[in-house]
Amino acid sequence: MDDLSTELLNAVREIRDLVHLMAEPAIAERDKSRRTELRRIVGKSAPKAKAVLLMNGNRIQAAIQKETGINKGDLSTLVKLLNGSGLLTGTGKEPKLTISIPANFFESGSGNE
Question: 44-96: per-residue pLDDT in tens?
Fold first, then answer.
């Protein structure tokens, strides 16, 4: 990729990130019940929260487990619960959340109810 293409791609990514930031309050309101269910399933578990944040459809469960250190059985149970609640798309081999959440979603006091 040449320098102009790279610069243009970076600018588009920055614009996308700004649009996501501006749209977050509306997205949070739209997905309120599903986000509440996600919080209920994950609880206060930091490994589960980290795992959920990696569920973008680009990683298999083994890669998520390796990156987060979550117990393999816990991850499998988490995926099953999320899938059963309609919070995942696909087969679960490469889990992807059906809703978008900000990176600080599981931090206490983040205001992303």
Answer: 999 999 999 999 999 999 999 999 999 999 999 999 999 999 999 876 689 99
Domain encompassing residue 89: 32-113
Question: What's the CATH number where 99 sits?
Answer: 1.10.10
The helix (run of H) or strand (run of E) holding residue 96 is strand 96-97
> How many CB atoms within 10 Å of residue 111?
10
Looking at this protein, which amino acid is placed at residue 68?
T
Same domain as 41, residue 10: no
Neighbour count for residue 40 (Cβ, 10 Å) = 10
- Both 63 and 91 in a single domain? yes
